[in-house]
Amino acid sequence: MRVRGRLVAVAVVAAALVAVYVLVGLTGSYALSRRVVKMAAVALVASSVAPATIIFQTMTHNRILAPSIIGMDSLYLLTQTATVFFLGATHLAWADARVNFVIASALMLLFALGLYRLFVVRGEHHLYFILLVGIVLGTLFQSLVSFLQMLIDPNEFLVVQGRMFAGFNNVPVELLGVAAGAVLLMAIWMLPTLRYLDVLALGRDHAVNLGVDYPALTRRLWVAVSVLVAVSTALVGPITFLGLLMANLAQELLATYRRTVLMAGATLLSVAALAGAVLVVERVLGFSTTVSVIVNLAGSAYFLHLILKEHPA
Amino acid sequence: MATALLAGGLASLALVSIFVGVVPVTPSSLWELTPLQAQIVWASRLPRLASILLAGAGLSIAGLIMQQLARNRFVSPTTAGVMDGARLGALVAVLLAGSASMLQRIAIAFLFALGAALAFMAIVRRVRLRDPIFIPLVGLMFGNVINAAATFIAYRHNLLQTLVAWLHGDFSTVLRGRYELLYLVVPLVALAYAYAYRFTIAGMGDEAATSLGIDYQRVVHVGLAIVASVSAVVVLTVGSLPFLGLIVPNLVSLYRGDHMRNALLDTALLGALLVLICDVIGRVVVFPYEVSVGLVMGILGSAAFLVLLVRSRYRAG
What we know:
Chain A is an all-alpha fold and 313 residues long. In chain A, 78% of the residues lie in helices and 0% in strands.
């Protein structure tokens, strides 16, 4: 089958890039362990961001949205900036990666779930309304962030800057297990609902007609998306355009509407893209930029192309 | 009636704002200022007041024009990538020529902002048939695109903190000699007034405007040029002010309707008044320190926007 062939091809490319990164120029066991940790983080981020984006796009019936639009990225930046600004870079909440991870992911999760809880009262589900409220609150967080960053000491700004842009250089090993556990838990929890995704994609009315418990399904999906995004953002920082780029590329490449296939494809593509970006940043550009900056640049260019292609004059 | 109220409120608050600050200046001492007080008033308080009025009025009118031309209530320079374009231009100007004069920087920022505005309008034309809420979403994403490019450049040159400063509106650094280019807003507003009828007609759409004898393309271009120049000047002198261009035209149209010449004066007054209120709040709330106008406005603006959203939802049923 054509789709399966392409899926295999993507998997091969992803594996090859990971192998090239780990094996080329390998000098010793220390380098090996560092590289393996980085690639593990890449796999973890790919397998949380890509499915989260596809679920989110299915729920909103929109291919140009990504979960970060509801303001979770801005909230992450706010927690990081505020920690350094008020407590200093030596405080436990910043210096201890574990404490920082727990605080940041818990806040993001609370925010996303609170947003949902607040606006899905009386059984009404206006997803676009939640999105717009999320965007507004995201803008609010952003103005707090920029206020603090304008005032902050330039040295401390550089410290924050390290967390503002997703990187795989300082991924704390001890957190990989926790994050992987959370992602796995979500995967198991989501498994029974996966077959409803294609029905949900038909639109709310059709889905309800076909017997889907729309409120329950949406709630479950929203929780899953929130957990996945919170964990991956707290682990490596925001990569706004990764999911958007890969979900659409997967759709284009695999030419299918089956969400489970798309999820697998987008995850593999994300692994390939992140591994490729890490390679370029470390071996070609000599660390002069970061993975997230490269992914966002490529992703945003592709996004423009997408808008113009989807809506011809 | 509303106009007189706005003008009166603005004038009295403007007067009060001269006396708000760390160096005490009282109304009674206004006639015999000490040298220090005189310097504060002439070099800091009055320039600050002028820049607040100009930036507030300019950005609100820019928002009004964009909403007319894009035919969408949720569009403004901050939600359409224009401000982001101006920031990218300012960054490019700093990198191309570190010694570039303020005017040259503004010119480059203007070109980028205009490019962003034109691109946004092209996108809006293509997605016209979709949900109106879809358009600001596209605009925000488009702004993200421009920001990604700006971040890429700034990261490599260690200019990220500078980029943040342009993002954040703040009047505390406005001093005599550093804000005068903001007066460019005055002729731009006059131009907007002269074109007000044409903008209103252009807001009816391409075909309706053309059949009424309006050169639609030219009117759109004039409008976008005004928006882009106001955005460029404001970004480089005081930084971006979120929500302003979005909220003010919507508030005014609630009682003035969509006829632009009727709404123009009130929009300018209300915009200036809102910025002034936010700035004075920011100056008083943690006295003798200051909270920037960008933050005060971000907080108040989010609240106002949420109310607007809830209302429009109830109306939609």
